[in-house]
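User: My instructor asked us to take a sequence, write out its structure as tokens, and then describe one feature of it. I'm not sure where to start. Here is the sequence I was given:
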Amino acid sequence: MTAVFGGVVDTLEVQLGGRRLQIVIERRGPQGAPVWLLLPALSTVSSRSEWQPLVTAVHDRVQLVSFDWPGFGDSDRPALAYDADLLRSCLDAVLTDLEARPHGPLTVVAAGHSAPLALALASAWSGRWSRFVAVAPTWRGPLPTMTGWSPGRFGWLRRLVALPLIGPVLYRMNTSRAMLRLMLRRHGWLDPGLLTPDRLREQQRLARRPGSRFASAAFVSGGLDAAGESGWWLEQARSLQCPFQVVLATAAPPRSTREMELLAQTADGVTRLPGRLGLHQEFGALLGRRLLEVQGPMA
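Assistant: Let's start with the prediction itself. The structure tokens for your sequence are:
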């Protein structure tokens, strides 16, 4: 297994959805230093590699840990009914594994749709965190956000994409470079100059790894949404037992911006950075520096 940001790569075996899955975890930085657990955003191109700009900027001032969610990146991608409960169980297993290892103060940094998954574990885990940071957080998948419909109304889409023959064909059509360019330009990245042919090919390779269509379709259709309404994550945020920081994306889509602003009202600190929903990737170096500033001399 190849390290994507120069760390040590390991696997964690987790029982999920009735299967034993291998979750790929990467660690980098000095032992005993403060730990940042970096949760990748959920998307068709989700991968721990999206934290590379932040890792480069932070270097070895902290210990960095990240992993690929089940169904995405280098982790196992079997044909499962992916949902928020399955991903929460994965995060709980990763936190349990981390707890068993000697480590310094733990900051959880959650990008995009991973924020509500972490918030769902607030009552059980946040008393052991030194800080929780939600970066351009979202709680609803793309189709429920665009239509206002509940994820249940898109169950047919998840079933269709899961079918043999027709499912892979439909998914391949929706992960064409033109479609990925549209998605990343409208919702992901601010600078269109990032959408080079090489970058699009890289994103397409991520999206088209064998088995990726199952978790990706679940995300797009709202199947990975932790709740059906935003009041849930506001209550979860209020139950946090550690300092809470929200990083707002100044150019996020309007509906997502409204939800982020509401969540920010529950936070102990708010930071505004340029970017859309992929700001942790496009402006990862700036984000890393800001997080180090907040952490102070511990880093």
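For the description part of your assignment, you could build on this observation: The first helix runs from residue 52 to 58. Try explaining in your own words what that tells you about the chain.
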